[in-house]
Amino acid sequence: MAKMINKTLVLTYIYLLIYVLLSSGVILYNKWVLSPKYFNFPLPITLTMIHMGFSGFVAFLLIRVFKVVSPVKMTFEIYVTCVVPISAFFASSLWFGNTAYLHISVAFIQMLKALMPVATFIMAIVCGTDNARCDVFMNMLLVSVGVVISSYGEINFNIIGTVYQVMGIFAEALRLVLTQVLLQKKGLTLNPVTSLYYIAPCSFIFLSLPWYVLEKPNIEVSQIQFNFWIFFSNALCALALNFSIFLVIGRTGAVTMRVAGVLKDWILIALSTVIFPESTITGLNIIGYAIALCGVVMYNYIKIKDVKATQPITDSLPDRITKDWKEKRSSDGESPRGGVELNDEEAPLITSSRLSHIGRTQLGSHTAV
């Protein structure tokens, strides 16, 4: 029994490492593809539509052709009232987030993403899914001050890129709140494959309008290079990230995932300065981000404490592993333990009706899937 628990723990941390590497890799890959200084494919909507089309196609094959995953019971009413609005904000957050890569550095984008809890808190209050609290408000104020300081210290500050990124963050925050208000209240549980199957095609359609207006003319008049293997591998990495998250959410808890998210952000900031030499980090950047990160950590602590207060009996990871080992796994594989929803900017489609609070979803924000 002890050997099995140790083996499972090792496997869990291997999955966590894969998630961190894939998430960081996809973000850096997208930046490299979009940047005019490198691969020079400055069409973020087109890139996002490639991701959506590829992901939706693979999900269709898995569900309808190979029947590896069973589709959920989706009525026309649920699709129109739930999936469509969620897909609209999902597509918007992808569009805005990817466009930011054209104007600001990966490091600065990660620093701005510290605003995600602030945006989610505001949207949750507006939509009535959370209450205004003094302790959370003070944390949000601390995060905001940290981001302002970090922005002030940014050498290559670009107002267009900053606005796009902030808009993407708020669009993603609203998507999260809508997921709780609409999907979860309908009792609909989606795993990564079924999420892609239903949401990716709808997001593709929403993105087609801004693509036709903003990018189609540029494709016609300019010499845009298209390398099949570059875009195929890029979309494949994003898809692999979705599946790695599916593996991770079933083996860990909220605290571990938040630590992994913070670790990923620091890795991205460090790697981006090495891979993209034009990305310069100043002392004021680090100070501001550290202040914002303190606010995020305290916010996560408050939310975890709130969750534990509603769950009198909380098993430790070894206890949960032992319990799960004794119990048979469900046939459909949809059993995210610990009620964790990953909000990763590259794979934000994971949703679960088992979630009870929007505050559990603070791992990142959003740019491309």
TrEMBL record:
Residues 324-345 are annotated as: Disordered. The keyword Repressor does not apply. Residues 324-335 have a biased composition (Basic and acidic residues). InterPro entries: Sugar_P_trans_dom, TPT_transporter. One of its GO terms (cellular component) is membrane. It is a multi-pass membrane protein. The chain crosses the membrane at residues 12-29, 41-66, 78-96, 102-124, 136-153, 195-214, 226-248, 282-302. It is found in: Membrane. It comes from the Eukaryota. The keyword Membrane applies. Its main location: membrane. This is Sugar phosphate transporter domain-containing protein. It comes from Brassica carinata (Ethiopian mustard).
